[in-house]
């Protein structure tokens, strides 16, 4: 860990920023309830009993309760058929009390993820993964109904930390459908000059060194070294990697895709792992749910 004397980067505290956003959302939900006698509703569908998925779902459930959003929990067995899952999604689409539907990924191998996500009504696609929402995100002059939560959270962290995006050179490390691709499109929409580094990129270090903004989302512990970072750059680390640590009760600790100890000596802004992007993802899910409800309520 960098000592205070050689740590120059301002820490972007995702927990604190997410807490502020949740307070703003709770106030909005109270206003909607008073004006319309209804509150936003979020349905979370979980298939099977994966421990990590259960943890994510519990976090989302608690966050909903905290801001006054009504939570609809749908748990289905691991062996549920794709057809039955899609039928359940259609039921949720037609429920007027539900303004957002989230199907927790990954799904069991026998279910086609694309078919299920495509079955969610675009008006309730609070994850922002519907092909029409992603398609509009990719087009100039078009606005999707919802933006994917983690990428939206990354840009919100930059904005609330006073980091300028317009005209800056941004490098996204990773090209997944969940983070890398949509965050690169969002940065482009915000007038950054964007490069994407992926597994077939030659000399990634040289490209990352030119970045004013680095979004790391490759899922490789400490891949990005401190000397890869341009002095004063803003670094958003989406990576959450478990590495062995015998000193911890669990036997592991979570680290990012960026070597925080080294990078924090060089960067201008940096997110910690954990506590950086994670809390923002949930906050943006709540934000999307409230925005979906406001469209229905006519606000």
TrEMBL record:
PROSITE patterns named among the record's database cross-references: THF_DHG_CYH_1, THF_DHG_CYH_2
SUPFAM superfamilies the UniProt entry points to: Aminoacid dehydrogenase-like, N-terminal domain (SSF53223), NAD(P)-binding Rossmann-fold domains (SSF51735)
Any Pfam family hit: THF_DHG_CYH_C
The keyword Thylakoid is annotated on this UniProt entry: no
Stretches assigned to the Tetrahydrofolate dehydrogenase/cyclohydrolase catalytic domain: 12-127
Tree of life domain: Eukaryota
EC number(s) per entry: 3.5.4.9
Residues annotated as domain Tetrahydrofolate dehydrogenase/cyclohydrolase NAD(P)-binding: 148-295
Keywords attached to this entry: Hydrolase, Multifunctional enzyme, One-carbon metabolism, Oxidoreductase
CDD domains noted in UniProt: NAD_bind_m-THF_DH_Cyclohyd
Keyword Cytoplasm: no
Coiled coil: none
NCBIfam families: PRK10792.1 (NF008058), PRK14186.1 (NF010783)
Descriptive protein name: methenyltetrahydrofolate cyclohydrolase
Species of origin: Camelina sativa (False flax)
Lineage: Eukaryota, Viridiplantae, Streptophyta, Embryophyta, Tracheophyta
Gene that this sequence comes from: LOC104776476
